[in-house]
Specification:
Chain lengths: 405, 510
């Protein structure tokens, strides 16, 4: 049934900003709707001795906002929290661009973190300028190879990447535990963890005093800008800048290179890609490698910029939440930044939300709000119906293809 | 009026953002009338039929059935009002039998269990009573397309449709099958049922319709009697200007053999042999037209030539060199390919026109340097081709998906003709597009031929083959059953060959 639809007028150069803004409408309304429903839940579930229900709602959201953005320290922590979401969100989004659903960011992240940690504490005598890039590169390649496995299986045998990335998550988790408990364990430490990385492998903080050595196994890290004021100690590190660079890099790669063009074509229409002489299988393997590398980078920045070691039972959850971030950003690399910051802000603000309401509500409410956001983004018809938005022409975005195609 | 009309539409208007799809359309359908609707793609035929069938709500206007005003909210309403619709793409369940499909939704059952024998008996009766012979106990997937169509019509009749809407019903039929359908249509009309017949084939419309209503840009241009109309006058009404129906071309000057196919065997997706030891030659400077009913291996043959489908055995040579099964190598070897699946294969609908125009050569200079795309070159390339190939679009950044079918096809043609080629493989190059674009694409193909390109044309439209081809090869069950010079070809003979009836006693082509 052909329905004639008006041809939208577009300007005479490639415009990427306008579509971005148009695409942003549904996610923003999804967030709004989720927050409203969250308020309703607070209204009915709050039991506070001194506040009215309305006051509790107000305090909760005030606390949430202040917890995420109230002061330099809070903002810095939110950006630190957002950094792995940006990398892992990019990883999932890149997969979507090629029509692949990478659920394995979590496992790829494990591989990235443990490998960069091993290089970070195991290689001695290198200056920062060599040691840091080496540790990063090791983690990136490890994550990339871990991602390339399901990519290769998909390309060669048609085995669906959703299954294989999930399976590799289990294997990666066990592998990580084994490495931390046995060969890479810091035998001097009472807890089960790897040794601290050397200062020369650390991602420097952006601004602050020299680090407190007790936090870092005696290693000192020098921030990019050293302040005299010992209380002005922001945790934000160079990893955040690398994340922004990665966003630009992925955007440029997808938009401006022949390989990116191939990946997008395979993702939008594999038949047309084959017809145009592109190698669908090559795109699958390459995309999964790059996706794994980005997810690995999420682990790298956590280890080299925040944790400085890897602990047993290390389970970040970043890899899984990054699927949500990619969905919220509708797989647009640039939109990953606000989506990741939003996600980081929710995680970072929930503690103050709980305490400002006198524990009248639990910080676990944030999980509900996050789930609602994703449901509304995924089922965008509901949002369009609530807000009476007109369905635009051009079809829906393809995130992933069905089984066995 | 002595008797109320079966259906009357008054001032139906439907607006979509930016276009008036139906602009105050009025017409009447008499009992027992075959009323043809003629119009180019985008003229508003589909919108009008979807309004009648309750799939789209009109902004204005009224619909009367047997003189009573009705509101049709959904297809269930439409069926209750006695409307039946046979879409171009059949809504049949492949893995059910014909009988099961016919009664789908109102199954004949006893205590919730389908009464198979009784159902088959009653469906066979129904099938006989309308002269629509269908083997009711065969799975739909094993039935030929023409028979599947009968199942669709029977489905509508089973729901007691008094008004049948047939949307481009002859597109997938041989001329003989089409004749069969027309006989059934006349019979049904004789019983007092009314038929709305949608088509863009002028000959057919003239031969079957009692009245013809022509639509253009959402409005009724006029309703005429076939006796008072000609192909030329109808085409002029459809397009709004006089059209060249015949392709003017000089006799071909065939050169050496460019494409040589020997003993080719290709399997379909289900692993059945569909191209069966086929031989074929196409020379430089000639158009070889392959006529045949869809599903006789044409698609698979073309895919094999273009490296998109593996070859079981046999050889394909381009200027004497064996072709590798690699689409890119084949493209670089000078083969252009217009695929029959415009939207699914030929274009990336979510891409701007500019990107679609470099889909097969984005990786070579001047469009790329190393791995970096040259946006400026891609832009100026697109602007030039849009002008040269008369692609009607607001901008080269418009998504291919929002273009009309004709303009989408021009994007493909522009892309394939924008590089030096030796062989053009054109599969259904004008299916479902407007007359203006057909004219343009036909002229472009002949222009390529005149420059010495070998052209392999596959089309289900016999008229297209007859007007473009220099030689005609008829394909049936995966083989070329006859090859004849176009000058000696006539419709009836080719139609019989297409149906596998006539013997290949006309083998004087090659």
């Amino acid at each position: 049934m052909a329905v004639e639809i008006g041809v939208p007028v577009r300007p005479h150069r490639r415009n990427w900003l306008l579509p971005l803004l148009q695409e942003a409408v549904v996610p923003l309304l999804a967030i709004l709707t989720a927050l409203i429903i969250g308020a309703v839940i607070i209204w009915f579930s709050a039991h506070s001795a001194h506040d009215t229900r309305l006051q509790t709602v107000g305090k909760a959201y005030h606390g949430l906002f202040m917890g995420a953005f109230g002061g330099w320290n809070r903002i810095s922590d939110t950006l630190v929290e957002a950094t792995p979401y940006i990398f892992a969100g990019l990883a999932v989004a890149l997969g979507f661009k090629c029509g692949l659903f990478n659920i394995g960011a979590e496992g790829q992240l494990y591989l990235g973190s443990i490998t960069s940690a091993a290089v970070g504490f195991g290689v001695h005598g290198l200056p920062t300028i060599i040691h840091l890039p080496l540790a990063i590169l090791a983690g990136v390649i490890a994550g990339g190879l871990w991602g390339a496995i399901p990519g290769y299986l998909r390309a060669r045998t048609g085995a669906h990447e959703v299954i294989n990335t999930i399976m590799l998550n289990y294997i990666a988790a066990q592998l990580l535990d084994y490495l931390i408990l046995k060969p890479l364990r810091d035998t001097h430490a009472s807890s089960q963890r790897t040794p601290f990385i050397l200062g020369s492998a650390a991602l420097p903080r952006l601004i602050g005093p020299r680090t407190n050595p007790s936090l870092s196994g005696g290693n000192t890290y020098t921030p990019l800008f050293v302040t005299k004021n010992p209380t002005f100690d922001l945790r934000i590190h160079v990893g955040f800048l690398l994340a922004l660079l990665a966003v630009w890099g992925v955007w440029w790669f997808l938009r401006r290179t022949t390989t990116g063009f191939e990946i997008r074509t395979v993702g939008s229409n594999p038949k047309a890609a084959r017809y145009a002489g592109m190698s669908v299988t090559r795109s699958f393997v390459l995309t999964m490698f790059l996706s794994g590398a980005l997810a690995g980078m999420a682990g790298v920045t956590q280890v080299l910029g925040v944790e400085y070691n890897v602990k047993s039972l290390f389970s970040s959850g970043y890899g899984f939440d990054s699927i949500a971030v990619a969905l919220l950003a509708k797989s647009n690399p640039i939109a990953i930044i606000p989506a990741a910051i939003f996600w980081g802000a929710l995680n970072n603000g929930k503690g103050l939300m709980q305490s400002e309401t006198g524990a009248a509500i639990s910080s676990d409410l944030i999980r509900i709000i996050q789930a609602l956001v994703i449901m509304f983004v995924a089922a965008d018809q509901i949002v369009r119906w609530i807000y009476r938005l007109r369905q635009r022409g051009g079809g829906t975005a393809i995130f992933s293809r069905g089984w066995g195609q | 009026m002595q008797q109320p009309s079966a259906l009357e539409v008054r001032n139906v208007t439907k607006q979509f953002p930016g276009v008036v799809a139906n602009d105050h359309i009025s017409f009447t359908l008499l009992p027992g009338e075959i009323h043809a609707f003629l119009g180019e793609n985008g003229a508003g035929k589909s919108t009008l039929m979807n309004i009648l069938y309750g799939l789209i709500a009109p902004d204005e206007g009224a619909i009367f059935i047997n003189g009573r005003q009705v509101t049709i909210h959904n297809p269930a309403d439409a069926i209750r009002q006695g409307l039946g619709m046979v879409h171009q793409e059949y809504a049949l369940v492949d893995t059910l039998t014909a009988a099961e499909n016919i009664m789908l939704g109102t199954e004949i059952a006893r205590n919730g269990v389908i009464a198979e024998r009784e159902a088959n008996r009653r469906m066979a009766e129904l099938s006989r009573s309308y002269g629509l012979i269908v083997p009711v106990d065969v799975l739909v997937q094993d039935l030929p397309v023409g028979v599947q169509q009968r199942v669709e019509i029977l489905k509508a009749l089973y729901h007691n449709a008094k008004i049948l809407i047939l949307d481009e019903p002859t597109a997938v039929l041989t001329p003989q099958e089409a004749e069969d359908l027309f006989r059934v249509m006349r019979e049904l009309a004789g019983q007092g049922r009314s038929i709305i017949f949608i088509s863009h084939k002028l000959k057919e419309v003239l031969s079957i319709a009692d009245r013809i209503t022509v639509l253009r840009r959402g409005a009724v241009v006029g309703t005429v009697l076939p006796a008072a109309a000609s192909e030329r006058s109808l085409a002029t009404m459809m397009v709004g200007r006089s059209v060249e129906l015949e392709v003017t071309k000089t006799p071909a000057k065939p050169g050496s053999v460019v494409l040589e196919v020997r003993d080719l065997v290709v399997e379909d997706d289900r692993g059945q042999v569909i191209v069966d030891h086929l031989d074929l030659d196409v020379c430089a400077g000639e158009v070889l037209g392959i006529a045949g009913v869809q599903g006789n291996g044409q698609t698979e043959l073309v895919e094999a030539i273009n490296g998109l489908r593996p070859i079981e055995s046999g050889t394909i040579r381009l200027q004497g060199q064996p072709l590798q099964a690699d689409p890119r190598a084949i493209t670089e070897g000078g083969v252009a390919y217009i695929p029959d699946d415009r939207k699914g294969t030929g274009l990336v609908l979510g891409y701007p026109i500019a990107d679609n125009l470099v889909l097969s050569n984005y990786y070579v200079p001047p469009f790329a340097h190393g791995i970096v795309l040259d946006e400026g070159q891609i832009t100026s390339h697109a602007e030039q081709l849009v002008k040269q190939f008369d692609i009607r679009t607001p901008s080269i950044w418009t998504h291919a998906g929002s273009l009309s079918g004709g303009n989408q096809q021009k994007v493909i043609v522009a892309r394939e003709f924008s590089r030096p080629i030796k062989l053009l493989v054109a599969a259904q190059p004008t299916r479902g597009i407007d007359v203006g674009s057909i004219e343009f694409i036909h002229r472009s193909i002949i222009a390529q031929r005149d420059q010495g390109v070998a052209v392999l044309l596959v089309s289900a439209e016999l008229d297209e083959i007859l007007s473009l081809a220099d030689r005609i090869a008829v394909m049936f069950h995966g083989r070329i059953v006859a090859t004849l010079p176009a000058a000696q070809a006539n419709r009836e003979q080719i139609g019989l060959l297409m149906a596998g009836v006539a013997h290949a006693d006309v083998e004087n082509g090659h």
